Amino acid sequence: MRVVISAGGTGGHIYPALAIINKIKEREPKSEFLYIGTHNRMEKDIIPKHNIPFETIEIYGFNRKKLYKNFKVLSCFYKCYQKCKKLIKEFKPDIVIGVGGYVTGPVIYAASKLGYPTFIHEQNSIPGKCNNFLASHVTLIGTSFKSTIDKFPKEKTIFTGNPCSEDALKQPIMKKSEFGLLDSKKLVLIVMGSLGSSKINDYFINLFSAFGGKNYQVLYVTGNAAYESLKNIKVPTNVKLVPYIDNMTRIMKSTDIMVTRAGASTLSEIIALKVPSIIIPSPYVPDNHQYKNAIGLVDANAAIMIEEHDLKGDILVRNIDTLINDDAKIQNMKNNLSDFGIDGSATIIYENIKKIIGEK
Hints:
Number of helices: 14
CATH architecture of the largest domain: 3-Layer(aba) Sandwich
CATH superfamily of the largest domain: Glycogen Phosphorylase B
Distance between the termini: 13 Å
Strand content: 15-25%
């Protein structure tokens, strides 16, 4: 199979794309790929490490506050559209796949206009603007949430789950000792998305000392941009700061409690691996979609939620202390997470891709 695939901006888009690539490679080892990403976001660093041919386009998301800047956005979109047409014609793919982020707009639109089969995947419960735009142009749409099906044309939308869930189960476990922690002691993993959060980092600066002397360890992921300013902060010996962890699911398998945002890919991995979690949804995303992603888990007692505006004093430490020492509640959370999983998400996507290629 020859595949052009595009996703960008955050790990929440990039890692589902990699999960789809891995599944295609597993089923068809001789497959060839071309990944189209932005020139200045994290995919430019991640994708080449996986030895996947990578092309960049200069594209920007719409500016909701300074509307005059969108003239440049529209100009870039047209240039990217022309470049993507050229790349796609040269590569001659069997299918073109978009897995989220504004970078997928010109890629999928160009493929559609050229007559290639196209598939997009929506990770969040509320579709993003780019996927809403592309919905009328694509061959097939996959969703992570059942409830999202109704927000797209029903005749070409299917519930696939998030491909990260299947990929997560296959990853080898990462030991706590790889971070200088004790394998024998419980672990709390704190990560605020692939890019980190300056607001949460500021909150934790005065909170790290509260973890001293606890009967568990804390692995705190700052985000690459903030690490230099935080790495010299004095923290207790049971707290470790790291800028980023590639393939987070490996350490999630050694994690007792995860404190996290509510990105759809992260939630799919939490569900697949049955990791008890305290969720702090980002209030800075369109349509408050992280809250909507997570509320189903919270209502089913499969996760705990603390909204960012409620992060005051040591409320988070107190919640961690209570949960990590309540074995019955942790087990109940794990049991309830079982109700949210879907088996073989990446396989479902692969099989449906094969169907639409056959319809070309």
